[in-house]
Structure formats: C-alpha cells, structure tokens
Amino acid sequence: MTRRVVLATRNAHKVGELRAVLEPLLDGVEVLGVDAFDDVPEVAETGVTFAENALLKARAVANATGVMAVADDSGIAVDVLGGAPGIFSARWAGRHGDDAANLDLLLAQLADVGDNHRGGAFVCAAALAVPGGGEFVELGELRGTLRRERAGDGGFGYDPIFEPSGAHRTLAEHTAEEKNAISHRGAAFRALAPRLAAELA
Amino acid sequence: MTRRVVLATRNAHKVGELRAVLEPLLDGVEVLGVDAFDDVPEVAETGVTFAENALLKARAVANATGVMAVADDSGIAVDVLGGAPGIFSARWAGRHGDDAANLDLLLAQLADVGDNHRGGAFVCAAALAVPGGGEFVELGELRGTLRRERAGDGGFGYDPIFEPSGAHRTLAEHTAEEKNAISHRGAAFRALAPRLAAELA
C-alpha cells in the first residue's frame, strides 16, 4: 500500500499551510490534494463544533477516495461574540469563502468595542479518517486580539486583523514559516502527526 | 415635580412597545420620547452586555434631560453562535438598524445548521436612571427557535424568523398584545415597573 494522505480541502491557502506543516513530519509520504481525485462529493458542514466538521470532511473524503484523509476546520472565535464567528468564519458575511467581506463585516460588528474587549483566538480542529479504520481529532488554538484595521499581506482570512498575543504585528505580517510555528493550524496538525505516522507505518 | 419618564430610544418600534407595556403600569405618568428634547447626545454603546448598554443609554438621557430615563438594550442570542448576535443584533450586517440585512445575514450564517441546533432567545435589559439618583436594570428573556424563512408582518427586527417555544408561529405572527405579554421586552419592563413606580411616587 502506497504511503499516501489526501488533504480534504479545496482551499488552496489551507493546502499550502497543511503541506508545509505535514511534509517535514511525514518523511516520504505523498500528500495529495482532494483535486487529485474525481467525484469527491462536497460535504455539508452540518456539525456545530470545529471537531465535528473536521471529522465530517475527513470521513467523507476517506470514504470517497479509499485513501487516508486529513481535514481541517478552523476559524476565529471572538470573546465578546461568545466565540462567534467560530465554525461560521468562512461564511460570516453569508457567502462561503469571501474573505474580504467576512473581515469587513467582523470589523463593522466590533466597531464600538473597546480595546480591552477585543480578545479572541484562532481555533483549528485537525481530523484524520482511515478508510475502514479509526477517526482522530486534535485541537489547536492561537490567542490574540482583534485590530481595528488591516495590516499585512500574508496569510488569508482574518489574518490581517489578528495580532497574536505578544506579537505586536498581525498574523498577516508574519512569514509563512513564522505563522506555521505558532498557528492554531500548525499546533493542531503537529498534535495529529504522531497518530498519522502510526497509521501510515 | 411632574411625573414624567423619558424613553431613551429613537427606535419608533421600541417606543411603541415600551409605551404599550409601561403606560398601563404607570397610571398618570407622562411617557415621553427622547425626541421631545433638544440636544440629547447620541450614546456610543460601548458596553459588552445588554445591561451595560441599557444603563449607558438611560444614564446619558437622564443626565441630558434632567428627567428620569428608561432604556432598553435587546437582541437575539443564538445558541450555536455562542449567544451572538447578542448586543450586536441591530448592527449585525454592519450598518446600524438595517433589519432586513441583519435578518438575511443571520439566515445565511445558519443555512447549514440542522433543526435540532436552531435554539435561541430574545434577551432584553431594561434600565432606569434617576437624575442625581439611582440606577436599576432588569433582564427578560424569551426562548424559541430560529426558522429558515420569514413568516408574518408584525413586530420588527428578527421577529419574522423567531418562533417562541410552544408557539408554532413566529413572533411576527403575534399581535402586538400577544407579543408584549410574552416578550423579553415586556418581561424586563414589567420587572422594572415597580422600581419605576417607587421612584415616581
């Protein structure tokens, strides 16, 4: 059996981040995008937690491809919003994947919120589904505060308005390597990597 | 001293509901809108709870007018959103008071959320500020579920998609009297009324 893993996402930004995190940890493993397969169905993200949605996606892709699948579900949890946007981060403005609209809406919602109430976190659930086998999920988190204006061109999503605790610059002002070292997604997938390695062995 | 109370809101819907709730409880008291006064400043709603914002508004209007002021801060708290939109309900789509856009956005955000996860509540904080005197706040809540489509022409805000528990129709399909009898706003102001009556006595 070939040592292959498929990434259960069509988001090019996430594919890039996941490859960067996973490949050094999984020597010699072929990391495929879901676009390498035909007829993988779109999964309705009907869960109400990051973990549920990540597992839904990993399971669907593992079942459709017969290849071990890892999936990510992640988002930004704003304290004063009770953890929202949360699992709805990618569709916050109503249309899936419109990063600019999502970010603008969140800024507008928080316009009157004072500096001492702008805390939040990026949260990621990393899931692994093994065809005919087990399912696993790990969580990662990055605490920080929400800026009032964008800064930086790196990353994607809400990165330009998120300042990690102690960083004094936004996540979009971090290099890809710096971001992966501290990010919610990096943490979740590093936590999942030993399980993935064991399943591939 | 005249027995007068000023309602610290410019929202005509809320003025109507508050008058209907308060006037029968406060026989002979003159209930004024804030528009009856010149030069009442707009208040930035910088609080992070309904109670804080209601008190901010009541206090500002009492200070500006010298008349006892009551204020409302209310909104819809959706369980799967961790209580959001909450205090941000009136500006959910980014622009204050655009009921149709706010409602459309919430429906879009919840499009993939299953029927068993669509619970929520309308919440209201009713505040009283007495010029040179005390400040008081009471909370009211109405539990229910979020529909997938509008129904009904009554009420305002999110009423057309909110079905109170056990009601089998939306709040917008209730008469004004039916709504006041069960609503978060009715409950909060009925709880506040004895205090208001004592202060007016």
TrEMBL record, chains A, B:
Chain residues that bind Mg(2+): D73
Cofactor(s) needed for function: Mg(2+)
An example molecular function term from Gene Ontology annotations: ITP diphosphatase activity
Co-factor binding comment: Binds 1 Mg(2+) ion per subunit.
InterPro entries: dITP/XTP_pyrophosphatase, ITPase-like_fam, RdgB/HAM1
CDD domains, per the entry: HAM1
Catalyzed reactions per annotation: ITP + H2O = IMP + diphosphate + H(+); dITP + H2O = dIMP + diphosphate + H(+); XTP + H2O = XMP + diphosphate + H(+)
Entry protein name: dITP/XTP pyrophosphatase
Taxonomic path: Bacteria, Bacillati, Actinomycetota, Actinomycetes, Kineosporiales
Gene: rdgB
